[in-house]
Amino acid sequence: MTTVFFDVDTQIDFLYPAGALYAPGAERVVPHVTALNRYAASNEIVVISTMDAHAEDDPEFKSWPPHCVVETAAQQKPIATLLEKRVVFPNRPCEIAIDEAQQILLEKQTVDCFTSMHLLPLLEKLNADRYVVYGVVTEVCVKNAAFGLLKTGGRVEIVTDAIRALNDADGAKVLADFTAAGGVLTTVAQVTSTD
After folding, report:
1. CATH number of the domain that 99 lies in?
2. How many domains would you assign to the chain?
3. 0.70 cut: is pTM over it?
4. CB 65: neighbour CB atoms within 10 A?
5. Mean of per-residue pLDDT scores for the chain
6. ∠ Cα 6 67 122 (to 5°)
7. Does residue 194 carry a pLDDT above 70?
8. Sheet holding 130-136, edge to edge
9. 124 lies in which domain range?
10. What are the residues facing 158 on neighbouring strands?
């Protein structure tokens, strides 16, 4: 079974209290995300890390407060979640070179990672049949990633102790809908001990 880990939007603006779109308690998932990313690297599992990368006048700011503006500290991922061998794919035409990359930083401008022009070609190239999803926030970007990946026909798992919602009830509904659609719930301990 070929596995890809999906580290969704673990960026400073979402993870910490000073962030523009802080998910309450999100800072507590950072050690879990770090552990998952490092586990992936040590087991030759590619990590796709989605990242919001907004212009200062981004159209998304009509729906959400300004956040993750390119080249600001708030747009960055915590250093602990970054792997040594990484490549960045901006959401514009560029070569898809992933040889030896442990982590692919996939930039996007909307809440749906599947709007990145590179995601579907990447998935085709990686040819995975299992996806392990974690990050923030559960009821928006994690939901879009997980449900989009379910459409590939592969096994999709959400790591419940490595996600955080803006609203707990909304997050719980996403998880219920996800399992009803054939998704699997798991934990960091289960992922790192059964792979």
Report:
1. 3.40.50.850
2. 1
3. yes
4. 9
5. 96
6. 30
7. no
8. 86-89, 103-108, 46-52, 3-8, 130-136, 155-164, 184-186
9. 3-194
10. 133, 185
